[in-house]
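For reproducibility, we list the full input for the dihydroflavine-adenine dinucleotide complex.
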Amino acid sequence: MLLWAARNRWLKERLPRFRWVHRATRRFMPGETAGDALAAAAVHQAWGVDGVFTLLGENLAELSEAQVVADGYHTLLDEIAARGLDVEISLKLTQLGFDLDETVAMEHFESLARHAAETGSWAWIDMEGSAYTGATIAFYERARARHANVGICLQAYLHRTPTDVQRLLAIRPAIRLVKGAYDEPRAIAYRSRPEVDGAFLALSAQLLEAVRDDRARFVAATHDIALIERMTRVGAAVGLSPGQMEIQMLYGVRTDQQRRLAKAGYDVRALIAYGSAWYPWYMRRLAERPANVWFALRQALPW
Ligand code: FDA
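The corresponding predicted structure, in tokenized form, follows.
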């Protein structure tokens, strides 16, 4: 139901008008402005947890909006550098006008990748619903041919992902592996938790070996601590030190574990989202853990 609500236009227009809904989003984002994200990143950096910024927003109505999104990220990259923060950026291609004009989306992405390289940062591509998977990977392959500091998110729940990883390994990719956040049909995706976890671990094992052989950068993006423990054991078994293993979690989720893992020497980043177009993203976060719905509803109560 929550994933349905994430796509529902009527709710998308109305729910964000309520003040308590704004309060509830603070569970997953420090605020709506870039300044809020920068301040949160500084706090995390003091804990040894670096950052990844994402400006919330998905499909655009007009291509001109893509320029505004790109400009926002350019300003952000300058601010990150000016404040001496170790923060990368991650964006959705549909935010750059991918649906409307792929060439324009590529121009924006490439200019951001160049800017990120100048400031010692990276530009990542989020993975959206399965209608975009093939085209997003093809886009990434073209971008990777021209830029070393670009990465892509892949979803372990999709049956196609092992084949995608195999093909991408030929171009020394940077891959952020997640379980997958969309409501995909059984024909193309695993739906049970043991199957998704099994796929995640098998892909991690392959990618950790690639890291050891300097054939890839690999980030395991999950809050599943048991899975992280299994993944790090595999990493150690193939000869990686904690500092060679990258873990990412969302801002506000399992912060204690983020700090613990950073202290243990793992390369940890928190994905910090900001912006006003948070509705579908926030609903997907609620869907991941229904207990969060209770937290959200409590914000509506006066006590
Ligand atoms: P799982 O859902 O099994 O959760 C494990 C445990 O973690 C839960 O039992 C719970 O305790 C805790 N937990 C998980 N989610 C929580 C939440 N929202 N609030 C509180 N506790 C929670 N997806 C995608 O399709 N495309 C993308 O580009 C990305 N990008 C991305 C980047 C980063 C850095 C992260 C961490 C995640 C994504 N995702 C994503 C989302 C991902 O696909 C997945 O939906 C979530 O990470 C939830 O799955 P877990 O791996 O955490 O495991």
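The CA atoms of residues 162 and 259 lie 31 Å apart. The pocket of dihydroflavine-adenine dinucleotide is lined by residues 126-127, 153, 155, 178-182, 221-224, 248-250, 253, 271, 285, 288-289, 292 (CB under 6 Å). Both points were considered when choosing residues for closer inspection.
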